[in-house]
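Hypothesis: this fold can be encoded by more than one sequence.
Test: take the structure tokens below, design a sequence, compare later.
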């Protein structure tokens, strides 16, 4: 089938590439000329495991191309996937400017039946708005020869860091659609990805739009819940990792996503929780539960700074070495990463910072052009550091050479913002480790 994917960011690029890998003819369209140029040369503008290889293969095979020319791509495609950003607007709700302007441009280029698939995360009612925008343009431009179309909701559940794998082997595909013929088309399109027996879940459009926000808000709630449990653990001397094992073994609860840490971040949870709160509130539903989730998360982003100031009430001359800046491992994405709040807090107190992240330093350099010493490997950051702070649990930070770490550092304090280390293990190397909710350890610098 011929497919156009509008927006070639984390979602759009992975969507386009994976559909091409399944044999479809795909054109990725973006307004960012530099991005399209790079993509056309087979260069991925973002880091996602496995993506580069698929990109090369499918461009070479002639199944995947990139363009800034939306009209031409629409004229050659049956399916138009909209995967542009829906950032947080000034009042916390999702900003639909790009989705709606793309819808109008698509309509202007339609010369026959098309299926417009909204893959961006959008509030309930957006597909209806998209339909209205398209109808409006079609009425104006093609009064004599009506063009028919369907709008489908198809929220994306891929996770950055394993986006290709998630798209190729989804645990479910959610489709909101009112036309049964389009249901069949969508099933056909996704069938090759669901040989594992996982379902395409067909539903009405409103439910589909809500499913995405409900899912992200629920996951954010799990994290904030564990962070609250961790705060109690710290007070009473319990270990949140033990509590996690005990709780998560109950199949009704489950272990995934039951982690205390430095707070959630990234391009989705923070904005989606806020947008969901705005949606509920606009319908008169009290969204206090999710407001609390966000409040706990904001508190949690202060965990590292609090621990540093507990250990060093006068931070003059202090140096903090940071491992990791991406909002999670296996991505270069730093949008709304907890590291940004942590670094800002340290810089405000004039604390020196050195940082290493395998993929995210370019993104952090744009946010912090000054004030951070970026290093090319995890050990270089440690020279004369008083504190080592783990913010992203990249695999290469899992088993460091603690003797080498101790030898390079001036201080002895390791702040484990992702609960990757055992305090007893580090103690045997003469280091003092403080995790999140792992008991009441008073670290002596
Ligand atoms: N990133 C994720 O992990 C993830 C997961 C699931 C869903 N989502 C949702 O998918 C959507 C896209 O997210 P993303 O992370 O891929 O965003 P992104 O910012 O990485 O990419 C968006 C792309 O759209 C392009 N764009 C903007 N306006 C355009 C226009 N008018 N025409 C053509 N291109 C345009 C931008 O240049 C950019 O390349 C959002 O709604 C997001 O909430 C994201």
């Amino acid at each position: 089938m011929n497919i156009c994917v509008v927006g070639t960011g984390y979602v759009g690029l992975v969507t386009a590439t994976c559909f091409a890998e399944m044999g479809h003819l795909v054109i990725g369209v973006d307004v960012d000329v530099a991005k399209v140029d790079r993509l056309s040369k087979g260069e991925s503008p973002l880091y996602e495991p496995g993506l580069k290889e698929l990109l090369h293969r499918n461009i070479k095979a002639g199944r995947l191309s990139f363009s800034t020319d939306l009209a031409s791509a629409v004229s050659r495609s049956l399916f138009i996937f909209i995967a542009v950003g829906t950032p947080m607007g000034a009042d916390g709700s999702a900003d639909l400017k790009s989705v709606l302007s793309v819808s109008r441009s698509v309509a202007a280029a339609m010369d026959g039946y098309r299926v417009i698939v909204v893959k961006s995360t959008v509030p309930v009612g957006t597909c209806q708005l998209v339909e209205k925008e398209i109808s409006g343009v079609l009425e104006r431009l093609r009064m004599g020869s009506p063009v028919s179309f369907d709008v489908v909701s198809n929220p994306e559940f891929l996770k950055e860091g394993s986006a290709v794998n998630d798209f190729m082997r989804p645990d479910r595909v959610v489709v909101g659609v009112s036309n049964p013929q389009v249901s069949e088309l969508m099933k056909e399109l996704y069938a090759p990805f669901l040989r594992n027996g996982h379902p395409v879940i067909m539903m009405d459009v409103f439910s589909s739009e809500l499913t995405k926000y409900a899912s992200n808000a629920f996951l954010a709630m799990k994290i904030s819940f564990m962070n609250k449990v961790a705060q109690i653990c710290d007070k009473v001397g319990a270990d949140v990792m033990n509590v996690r094992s005990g709780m998560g073994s109950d199949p009704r609860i489950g272990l995934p996503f039951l982690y205390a840490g430095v707070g959630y971040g990234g391009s989705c949870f923070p904005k989606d929780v806020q947008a969901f709160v705005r949606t509920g509130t606009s319908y008169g539903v009290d969204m206090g539960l999710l407001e609390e989730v966000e409040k706990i998360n904001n508190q949690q982003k202060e965990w590292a700074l609090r621990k540093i100031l507990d250990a060093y009430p006068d931070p003059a001359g202090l140096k903090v070495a940071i491992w990791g800046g991406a909002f999670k491992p296996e991505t270069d994405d730093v949008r709304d990463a907890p590291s940004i709040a942590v670094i800002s807090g340290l810089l405000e107190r004039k604390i020196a910072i050195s940082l290493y992240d395998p993929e995210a330093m370019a993104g952090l350099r744009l946010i912090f052009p000054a004030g951070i010493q970026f290093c090319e490997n995890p050990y270089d950051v440690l020279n004369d550091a008083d504190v080592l702070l783990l913010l992203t649990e990249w695999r290469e930070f899992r088993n460091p050479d603690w003797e080498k770490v101790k030898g390079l550092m001036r201080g002895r304090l390791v702040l484990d913002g992702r609960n990757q280390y055992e305090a007893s293990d580090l103690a045997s190397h003469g280091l003092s480790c403080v995790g999140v909710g792992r008991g009441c350890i008073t670290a002596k610098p």
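The mean pLDDT is 96. The first strand starts at residue 2 and ends at 6.
Hypothesis status: open.
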